Structures
1.
Amino acid sequence: WEKEVFLETVQGGEDNFVNLDLAYLSSRSFSDEFGAEISGDLLYVQVSYVIAFIFLGATLGNKFCGRGSRWAMALSTLVLIALATVAGFGVASLAGLIYGPVHSVLPFVLLGIGLDDAFVIANAFDREREGIPRDAEDDGALVKRGSRALARAGASITVTSLTDLVAFAISS
């Protein structure tokens, strides 16, 4: 109703007034404006995810595919970051917070934080190798090395995440 009747009537009558300025407000106007802002930023978010995928895969992996390649890790990192971003917006909407212009920066900030955590985990995984060549490790040794790496990386990820939480809480 607001779009089809109210806005068309008010916007169509603006030219009929000579000495009168017409100001109108509709709840639909707010969502239309921010809907346009959100859809305008989606291209940038998608491009940044593609660039991050190429950067992560090329930086972390020494092969394009096969054993020792980390392209799957790069892809799963980006999927988890995207899911966390969507979940964060969902929780904020559930809490009644509206999507404002400042929120359009959040996917890029979360992408940076998630990429940093991926580099920390990969570095810890590489440092936990016990002098055995990668080809000689069986699945059990990889699981043990992964658990030791996550135990080592977990402390630094927790500290940086808490620091980011405090910084965002202060800025909000």
2.
Amino acid sequence: DLLYHTHEYAEAETYLQKALALDPASSLANTSLGLVKMRDRKFDEAKKYLEKAAASDRKNHFVYYNYAYILSRESMDEFGYVQNFPPETSKKIREALARAIELKPDFTESYRLLSFVNLVNNENLDESLAFLQKGLALQPGNQEYAMLVAQIYVRQQKFAEAKSQLTVRVTWGI
């Protein structure tokens, strides 16, 4: 895991494979190897490791978030664009993020990803606004969250609110 976090991906993979040979259910090794595979854009392999990590560690929000993230990547093209998320994928993403939020409500990336999925599928937009407002309360000035709020307002055809959201953020340099 340390090698992954110090960007020594090839060496990290070697040691993580050895760790999994000793303990195939290791949540830490499966998570870290999933992240290595994700970094290498081997999303199918990453998904396999993150699924194993989630099955063996029901209390790690980071595992659930990354599993949801890898599921979201399946519907994206090579540039990161997505037209929609299939219903079954959306369901899995929502379940994983609900668990991540339950385990660690102050980890705001779960709110952001869930709101993004909802925006793409044009679903639960009011819920997404509430999630993003909570994220902004925990991370004031987060531009990515503010932009998602504005995008949701535009999707809802609340143009004055979208403009206000963006004007306040730009004017105050937040």
3.
Amino acid sequence: MFSTVLLFREALYGALVIALACSVLGVYVVLRRIVFVGAALAQISSAGIALALWLAGLGVMVGGAAGPTIVSLLLTLVAVLFFASGTRGRIPPDATIGITYSVAAAVGILLIAKAAIGEAHDIFLSGNILGITRRNTLVLLAVTVPVLVLHTVFYKELLFVSFDRETARTLGFNIRGWDLLLYLTLGVVI
């Protein structure tokens, strides 16, 4: 019974940290009308895990035990740079995000289907919050605290750029820079 209580306690702590970070970032996502970006970045992150598992099946180890996390973070940061660049011509941001989501989902499923690592299918396709450990919660805190500090320090600028991009551009705000900061913090939290 004692281990069950610890299991639930760690899951609760992890869920609270995630809820705090995602609720702060979610405000900007809704204001900018890019609500699908969180799902797209999460899907890209999952495709990064699938890529790491597939590479491990081929005998290519990337970053040791932390390989899936490293590959996932790198792919997510590449997607962040792509989303924040804003140089996609006449294609609306939501369409780009939706296409990226679909492609990442397909690539992730294809890679995990070819992975030779044990029960990777179950790990990849379903998550369990009860799997959060104390170490995971500490990693979540290590990521969340700097992100929340950044958003506290630059609250006015991020909010202004999110509410009225054209006025912010007219007043000399670096719109792409603020977009990049928002997307980077969102990608790191995911």
